[in-house]
Amino acid sequence: MKSRSPINQKNKKTYIKWASVAAAALIVLVAVFWLYNQEKNTDPVNSATAPSQSQQAATSEEKPEEKAAEEQAAKEKAAEEQAAKEKAADEQAAKEKAAEEQAAKEKAAEEQAEKEQAAKEAADKKAAEEQAAKEAAEKKAAEEKAAEQKPDSGNKLDATQYPEDLALPSKPTIISGVLLANKQHPLPATYAPGEVKEARSAFESMRANALKAGIDLTAFSTYRDFGRQKELYAGYVAKDGQQAADRYSARPGYSEHQTGLAFDIGESGQEQHWASSSFGDTKGGEWLKDNAHNYGFILRYPKGAEKITGYMHESWHYRYVGKKVAADIQSKGITLEEYLGVN
């Protein structure tokens, strides 16, 4: 039998040779693989976040467009601001123009009002002058008429008597601006002014001050027209006869109540003294005698003056003549006829 040692030795060398080659190849592969991973894993953050060349190129291409857009936006904003300024300026100019136009209108209105006021004052002055001339003429005519009626004996005319000519006039008698109504100076049947507002206002002022003294005055009879006076007078004549009625009641057309200026005054709560001579002795009657002239009223028919006024004493009958005339009559202690110089 042959020995196996030489064959095994030969195979062993071959085996070692290929084993070495395989080991070297494996080492090369490991080295290549290691180098590949080393290069891939170097600076992982920068490699992940750093832009690529293509990205940088894209960014560089986008910058001019963004700049142009920003410039356009800035231009548009500037244009909007300019437009807002111009609009504000236009609105301010419009307001100033409107204010100027309004001021011009107001000035024109003031000038027009001044012109109208001046024209009115001129017209009022002319009317006052004409009225004064008219009143002077009427006063003169009344004086001449009174002189004609005066008896030859030199005695004053008896004012209690109605004239023989009972025809009513076409106009009322006004002397020195004061309306006169008595038995010698009647009113037109058509004269119907109603209650005069000025007289009512004066009465209300007087009443308000009387209340402060604990006196509640009331005007229980004021304006009466021609028809109403006719009814009243006819009733008084039927009751007491004409001669008696003529002493305390006026015939239609001769009553002061038809002027709208006469007020029959009493005191609330004292009705028993209304239209009675006893009213003059009451607290309200005394207050009126002392204070009525301060409000433009006079006691129209005082005691002892029947021959002058034409009527018996009436403590309740007050006539509005205005403060100036009332104060003058009060201070002199005279009647309206004496003040006007007709008796």
From TrEMBL:
<feature type="compositionally biased region" description="Basic and acidic residues">
    <location>
        <begin position="60"/>
        <end position="155"/>
    </location>
</feature>
<dbReference type="InterPro" id="IPR003709">
    <property type="entry name" value="VanY-like_core_dom"/>
</dbReference>
<feature type="compositionally biased region" description="Low complexity">
    <location>
        <begin position="47"/>
        <end position="59"/>
    </location>
</feature>
<feature type="transmembrane region" description="Helical">
    <location>
        <begin position="15"/>
        <end position="36"/>
    </location>
</feature>
<keyword id="KW-0472">Membrane</keyword>
<dbReference type="GO" id="GO:0008233">
    <property type="term" value="F:peptidase activity"/>
</dbReference>
<feature type="domain" description="D-alanyl-D-alanine carboxypeptidase-like core">
    <location>
        <begin position="197"/>
        <end position="323"/>
    </location>
</feature>
<feature type="region of interest" description="Disordered">
    <location>
        <begin position="42"/>
        <end position="160"/>
    </location>
</feature>
<keyword id="KW-0812">Transmembrane</keyword>
<dbReference type="GO" id="GO:0006508">
    <property type="term" value="P:proteolysis"/>
</dbReference>
<dbReference type="Pfam" id="PF02557">
    <property type="entry name" value="VanY"/>
</dbReference>
<dbReference type="InterPro" id="IPR009045">
    <property type="entry name" value="Zn_M74/Hedgehog-like"/>
</dbReference>
<dbReference type="InterPro" id="IPR058193">
    <property type="entry name" value="VanY/YodJ_core_dom"/>
</dbReference>
<protein>
    <submittedName>
        <fullName>M15 family metallopeptidase</fullName>
    </submittedName>
</protein>
<keyword id="KW-1133">Transmembrane helix</keyword>
<dbReference type="InterPro" id="IPR052179">
    <property type="entry name" value="DD-CPase-like"/>
</dbReference>
